[in-house]
Write a structure and sequence with these properties.
α6 runs antiparallel to α10 and α8 packs across α9. It is elongated, with a radius of gyration of 27 Å. The chain has two domains: about 70 residues, Phosducin, domain 2, CATH 1.10.168.10; about 110 residues, Glutaredoxin (3-Layer(aba) Sandwich). Helices cover about 50% and strands about 10% of the residues. The protein has about 240 residues and is α/β, with parallel strands linked by helices.
Amino acid sequence: MEEAKSRSLEEDFEGQATHTGPKGVINDWRKFKLESEDSDSVPPSKKEILRQMSSPQNRDDKDSKERFSRKMSIQEYELIHRDKEDENCLRKYRRQCMQDMHQKLSFGPRYGFLYELETGEQFLETIEKEQKITTIVVHIYEDGIKGCDALNRSFTCLAAEYPMVKFCKIKASNTGAGDRFSSDVLPTLLVYKGGELISNFISVTEQFTEEFFAGDVESFLNEYGLLPEREIHALDQINMEEDTE
């Protein structure tokens, strides 16, 4: 009974795509490489070595146990790594691993666009009822005020790049506190997290040149540590490394 249960668990584990630990990572790489190779272009000897090194171990198979207990020979290592195609395959494998990692680590609500808040009640509800882990960036604006339109366009771009941040806009006249947001202090940025105001910037466009874009706003918010790391940042780093190789 215990042996059957153990085998069942092993079968479930073999169906998983990701292993942990150095040996598991190596086996994942070998399996990925074997699957990504064109079967018509791989010599039978190379394919067999890759298949043997990537297949899960069967505890009841003595030959299999001996095969997996031995160290990789220099000939096997050179056979796998000598071609340029191997390098390309490794890059694809690294990129896939990073994508899988980001998918697993990404949690919490997702937004992805600029929200228009219509009333002061809606503004307060957004601040008070959003999850505590969520950063909320609110642009208080008014039509005809210099820089407001450009800031809204920038937020539209940033909302797509930072879907875990909730970007909102609301007209000063709709906040219920329009007397506090005169044209002299617009555009104003308010940043909240966990229901608390953590940063505020009045006449924020004074921090930029007359013509500014999303990248300028992104850099400004990053200076104050108000944006998380972009999810694609690590993938961008890999792409940069590949371009220099």
